[in-house]
Design brief:
Structural class of chain A: mainly alpha
Largest interface: A-B, 25 and 42 residues
Largest sheet of chain C: 2 strands, antiparallel
Structural class of chain C: alpha+beta
Order of helices and strands of chain A: HHHHHHHH
Number of domains of chain A: 1
Strand content of chain C: 15-25%
Number of strands of chain C: 4
Order of helices and strands of chain C: EHEEHE
Shape of chain A: elongated
Chains: A mainly alpha, B alpha/beta, C alpha+beta
Low-confidence stretches of chain A: 196-208
Mean pLDDT of chain C: 95
Mean pLDDT of chain A: 89
Oligomer: heterotrimer
Radius of gyration of chain A: 23 Å
Shape of chain C: globular
């Protein structure tokens, strides 16, 4: 990092905001999948926020890339925003940024044409979110000395902890989830545990 | 003109030796008399017709060298599906025949209804009729792939029949045998196609119907094996012969599995025959018509009814796959019904919320009604789930919830007196009076349940493959 | 010309977003699954119906030409 132009500051700032937004998107995505709710908000708020904040994140990343390109202190080609390792400056770290941005674009574009896509394909690409975020995180830490100390580092670590906790919760839910073939047996066991002669009848009863 | 039904006892040992006296002529087809039963079942009960006898009785399958007139003949004959849905066969044939490209035909022998044995019997006793029908229909629609979908254990005779036919050069298209899991939904059209495609035998969302996009995306004709057997005869003897039996709206004969306290039999009856000639209502308290997705009728009504949908529909019933069960008077209808609904719930594919949630709760509610004393809430729950609000009916991907609701509703109607009796701690199936509240004991009579049901329920994905 | 709402019950997992966005035509049953008004969508609600279809997290809700 060097240079003190407005473009360079803008790039760093939008980068930090983008990381926060991506963290929020991932957590909201998990919340949608688990049918969770945000307190005080209707269900459609969760789905809407997930989609809208992902678009906002893309906008911030676009500015983040553009301002870095426009800044003249270092030479970063425009294409390095989407083509990994195309920049000679910080080749690896910026490359990771491009990779995560590509994954993001894949997820968003497939979601926009979701009705025309095979469900399994859509889901497979959307699961790349769990790859996209760590790659974006690595890009953030590696390419910016800002995030390597001080309160920005604390912020980055806090984001990482939130993502790990949310992903852990998602994994645990998946492990607990009954496969289709076992679902009806579970509900039968819950409501009619003893076959024809349920023991519930022996207990709570109001005869007519 | 009604004919007495011809019976074939389900568990009779099959006599493998073919008697020469069975065929009335050597070479050339024997045309059955216009008023004659049996049409599908062998002339001599218990004697299956192997290829030689089959050819002597019917001759070789009358291929037409293309779509030909078969579809028209089937339309004029008015043949409807014998798998339960009674859909006009010519329409399905026409839709698939019209399509371009690859087409598939499947003979559906997966008789998933535990109380039905007609398809199994037909496949043992007259496999060549079924296979003729399969070939003729395949030619009519221009199929490039043919399957025979069977429950395990049915394959031996069929394999032998297929080998004999191959040796005799009878078949227009090679037939692949595919195995169906022992699930109630295994024979459902989209579940069948799903299974053939390598997946589990669970239904898929329709549209598109399998006749438009089925196995591997190709238009697929799925036809019950009995339907194909009728088709094979229509191809030989024509629509007028077919219409010589049955009613104007519902022509032909049909196979029915009849359960009484004395026996379980497969009969071939003329459609429209008086119900009392098909099932003896003596000693019965209620008759179940149409299997486990069917309807209970009070025994007294049987003498006024005929075996056809037009008559039965006036009482909310339908012929279905031809299962008729006369519940003996000494049984508890509620206990029997509760067992059936529990089975139906366990056989849900568990894919659709209303079915997955509604059916087990209905099973529990019926179990509670079958006990002694029940919470007032149970009846209002059942009314809510099965009532005109349609909280369960029509809200699944197939009609499993619909059929289950139909069965439950008719149980609540026909056995209403029994429900009231149980609420007061009695049961008409037990000789003594009020029982202590506590675990139910329906006694020895019901330890041997009347309606046949399998012991095990599906628990994992393998049970659906 | 009017469209009718249908739901693919296999894909529906009972999120309930549709019922929030179109309460005039969609209610939830006691298990959280949508009960759809079977009649064609009135023109005044056409936009809301399309929003509900787009908002479904599993794309189970559809508008079909009837």
């Amino acid at each position: 990092m060097g240079g003190t132009t407005a473009f360079w500051y803008a790039s760093r700032a939008t980068g930090v905001v983008a990381l926060l937004l991506l963290t929020a998107v991932l957590v909201l995505g998990i919340l949608v999948n688990r049918q969770g709710r945000l307190p005080g908000l209707p269900r459609f708020a969760v789905t809407s926020l997930h989609r809208n904040i992902s678009l906002l994140a893309v906008a911030f990343i676009a500015v983040h890339v553009l301002t870095a390109v426009l800044d003249t202190y270092v030479s970063i080609p425009l294409v390095s925003g989407v083509i990994p390792f195309a920049s000679s400056y910080e080749r690896i770290w910026l490359g990771l940024g491009a990779i995560s941005f590509d994954l993001m674009l894949a997820m968003i574009i497939t979601s926009l044409v979701r009705g025309h896509l095979n469900r399994i394909l859509w889901r497979a690409i959307h699961l790349l979110a769990y790859l996209c975020w760590p790659v974006a995180f690595a890009h953030s830490i590696g390419s910016s000395r800002d995030l390597q100390h001080g309160w920005l580092l604390d912020l980055a670590i806090a984001c990482a902890l939130v993502v790990v906790a949310a992903a852990g919760w998602r994994l645990a839910s998946a492990a607990r989830q009954l496969p289709r073939a076992a679902r009806v047996a579970a509900i039968l066991a819950q409501h009619a545990p003893h076959g024809l002669h349920g023991s519930r009848q022996a207990h709570e009863r109001i005869s007519r | 003109m009604t004919m007495a039904p011809v019976n074939e006892t389900v568990n009779e040992t099959v006599n493998e030796t073919v008697s020469e006296t069975v065929s009335e002529a050597t070479g050339g087809a024997v045309r059955p008399s216009a008023s004659g039963l049996p049409r599908l079942l062998p002339l001599v009960p218990g004697v299956p017709e192997d290829l030689r006898v089959h050819l002597a009785r019917y001759g070789r399958p009358p291929y037409q060298g293309g779509p030909g007139h078969l579809i028209q003949a089937v339309e004029q004959a008015g043949l409807t599906g014998r798998g339960g849905a009674a859909f006009p066969v010519h329409r399905k044939l026409a839709i698939v025949a019209r399509a371009r490209g690859r087409k598939v035909i499947v003979a559906n022998g997966a008789e998933s209804e535990p109380a039905s044995h007609k398809d199994a019997l037909l496949l043992r006793a007259a496999p060549n009729l079924v296979l003729d029908g399969l070939q003729l229909a395949a030619e009519a629609i221009g199929a490039s792939e043919a399957y025979l979908y069977l429950h395990p254990g049915a394959s031996q005779e069929i394999l032998r029949a297929l080998n004999q036919r191959a040796a005799a050069g009878l078949d227009w298209l090679g037939v692949t045998i595919a195995e169906a899991p022992p699930r109630f939904l295994a024979g459902q059209e989209s579940a069948l196609v799903n299974r053939l495609g390598g997946g589990p035998a669970v239904p898929t969302f329709v549209p598109p119907r399998v006749t438009e996009r089925g196995l591997g995306g190709a238009p697929t004709l799925v036809q019950n094996v009995e339907t194909l057997a009728h088709l094979a005869l229509i191809a030989r003897y024509g629509p007028r012969w077919f219409r010589a039996l049955g009613t104007a709206r519902e022509p032909g004969s049909m196979l029915a599995t009849v359960h009484t306290k004395d026996s379980s039999q497969v009969v071939e009856a003329e459609i429209g025959a008086p119900l009392r000639t098909v099932v003896n209502p003596e000693g019965a308290q209620a008759i179940l018509v149409g299997g486990y997705h069917g309807t209970w009728l009070p025994a007294g009504i049987v003498n006024t009814l005929t075996l056809d949908n037009q008559t039965l529909s006036r009482h909310g019933a339908a012929v279905g796959a031809g299962v008729i069960a006369a519940l003996p008077a000494d049984r508890c209808g509620l206990a029997e019904a509760a067992r059936v609904v529990r089975y139906l719930a366990a056989e849900s594919a568990g894919q659709c919320g209303p079915c997955l949630n509604g059916l087990p709760r209905m099973a529990a509610a019926l179990a509670e009604l079958a006990g002694y004393g029940h919470r007032r809430q149970v009846r209002s729950d059942l009314e809510r789930w099965t009532g005109p609000q349609n909280l369960v009916t029509g809200r699944g991907a197939c009609n499993h919830p619909d059929g289950t609701v139909r069965f439950v509703r008719s149980t609540l109607t026909v056995f209403a007196p029994e429900i009231a009796l149980h609420a007061r701690g009695h049961c008409s199936a037990i000789n003594h009076g009020a029982i202590n509240h506590g675990a139910i004991n329906h006694g020895a009579a019901n330890r041997r349940a009347f309606l046949p049901l399998p012991d095990s329920m599906p628990l994992s994905e393998e049970d659906w493959i | 010309m009017a469209d009718t709402m249908r739901v693919n019950p296999i894909n529906c997992t009972g999120h309930g977003v549709c019922a929030e966005l179109l309460p005039e035509l969609i209610a939830l049953d006691e298990w959280g699954y949508p009960i759809l008004d079977p009649r064609p969508v009135p023109p005044s609600l056409d936009l809301e119906a399309r929003r509900a279809v787009a908002a479904c997290p599993t794309l189970a809700l559809k508008l079909t030409r009837q």
